[in-house]
Amino acid sequence: MSLEGEPSSVGLTLELWHPDCWAIEATDRTGGGVLAHAVYNSPRTDGGGPRTVTGLFTAFGETSAEVERLLEAIRDSEHAGDLFELQERFGRARNAPGNVVREFFLEYDPDEMICPALLEHGFVHSAPVRIEDGSERWQLRFAGDRSAIESSLDDVRDQTGAEVTVTAITSSEDRSTREQRLDTLTAAQRRAFEHARETGYYEWPRETTTQELADDLGIAKSTLLEHLRRAESKLLDP
Known about the structure:
single chain, alpha+beta, Arc Repressor Mutant, subunit A, 2 domains, 9 strands, disordered N terminus, HTH_bacterioopsin, transcription regulation, transcription
């Protein structure tokens, strides 16, 4: 898609892979996903700068077993430090995807972060980063001329070895309520809901059946109904 000749301060959604990332590695090997919320400096006892940073994250998945496997894969990563699981939530349960949600702090090497390179080239993240299936999804604002987006992304790729794909561009400052609610769905719930919507399940009269939807997605009818029920609950909740 062409990015030239457009106004500045646009919104971007990026699908991104970069090397030496514990979250990318862990979600590539297991189900579930991770939301990245905030990063804090880790203090040093010698008074110098931080050797590591500590991030606040949410692990999410369809089942407790899936989330436990994900957390174990994170602990096993050579790019992850100490993981401290939180007993109480930080108030994000309503907006977090997944049937099971676990929050944690994790120490890791700041040199393996891609955020500084994005900031250096004018990309400022505007929502928690979502990591699933070995890929990160970033929602960003570009603080520059829209015609410079492609060259700035090339600079990020060259500097970090990242693979970056632009999946959406918006000119409005605020994302729609519908888009924000879709972000609370798990990947499986979103696939089921979007396929049901595209094939006329929500039309009247219905143009497909739940059994046909389940067959299309290669899952059991009971599983499909559970995905749709949870998706509808999140999307319709006032």
